[in-house]
C-alpha cells in the first residue's frame, strides 16, 4: 500500500506502465493532507462576491496517490491548481474569470462545461431566469469595452471570455440546443440534417402540419397551428427531461430528434404570422 503525504506525481506514460518506477518521478509539493478528496469546494472569494458574480466554480487542485504499488490505475485526485498568467498567484476557482490577487482577466478554459460557466445545474429543466441573470452579470465585467485601456493580452482574453459566455448562454437558453449539448457531453449527438426515419406515422404528422401551415389564409389559422406546436414542444420537454434523469440517452436522443421538427415548425409559424402583419 502506497500513500503520499506531500507528493504530486509528475510522470510519463512510460512510468505509468511500470508502477514500480513511480517513485523516481515524484516531485515534492507542500500539501498538509495525506490524500486530498477528488473535489473541493472553496468558499466564495469576497472580491468576486462583491461583484455579484456568484459562485464561479470549484477549485482545480490535483494530487494523485496510488492505493496499491502494483496498480497505476488506483489513485485519488483533486483538481490541479492553475496560476495567474500575470502575477503567477494560484487561481482557486474554475472557471477563473479574474485573478483574485491582481484582478487581471484570465484566459478562458475552453473545455469547461457550459453549465459550470453559467453556474447552473446540469439539468434539462434549468432555471432560465437564473441563466439570464448570470449572463448579464458576467458580460458586465467581461465585455471587451471594459478593457480598451488594458494590455493587448487582456483585451484578447476578455474577447475570448465574452464569446465563450455568449456561446454557453445561447446553447443553454433553448431546450433543443440544451438537450443536444447534454447528449454531446455524454458522447452522443444528432448530426445536422439527420432525419427521424424510425416512425412513418410521425413523419406523416409533421408533413400534414407543414401543409396546413403553408395553406393558412389567416393569422388565426397560423396562430392555432403555433399553439398546438407549443403544446407538443412542452410535452416533449417533459418526456426528454424524464429520459435524461433516468439515464435513458437513446430515448432522449429520439425525442430530441422529434423536437427538432417541431422547433422548425414553430419558427415557420413566426414567419407566417409576420406575413399577416
TrEMBL record:
Pathway: Cofactor biosynthesis; iron-sulfur cluster biosynthesis. This is Iron-sulfur cluster co-chaperone protein HscB. Its main location: cytoplasm. InterPro entries: DnaJ_domain (IPR001623), HscB (IPR004640), HscB_C_sf (IPR036386), HscB_oligo_C (IPR009073), J_dom_sf (IPR036869). Acts as a co-chaperone in iron-sulfur cluster assembly in mitochondria. Required for incorporation of iron-sulfur clusters into SDHB, the iron-sulfur protein subunit of succinate dehydrogenase that is involved in complex II of the mitochondrial electron transport chain. Recruited to SDHB by interaction with SDHAF1 which first binds SDHB and then recruits the iron-sulfur transfer complex formed by HSC20, HSPA9 and ISCU through direct binding to HSC20. Plays an essential role in hematopoiesis. It comes from Scomber scombrus (Atlantic mackerel). It comes from the Eukaryota. SMART domains: DnaJ. Belongs to the HscB family. One of its GO terms (biological process) is protein complex oligomerization. One of its GO terms (cellular component) is mitochondrion. The lineage of its organism: Eukaryota, Metazoa, Chordata, Craniata, Vertebrata. Residues 112-177 form the J domain. It is found in: Cytoplasm; Mitochondrion. PANTHER family: IRON-SULFUR CLUSTER CO-CHAPERONE PROTEIN HSCB.
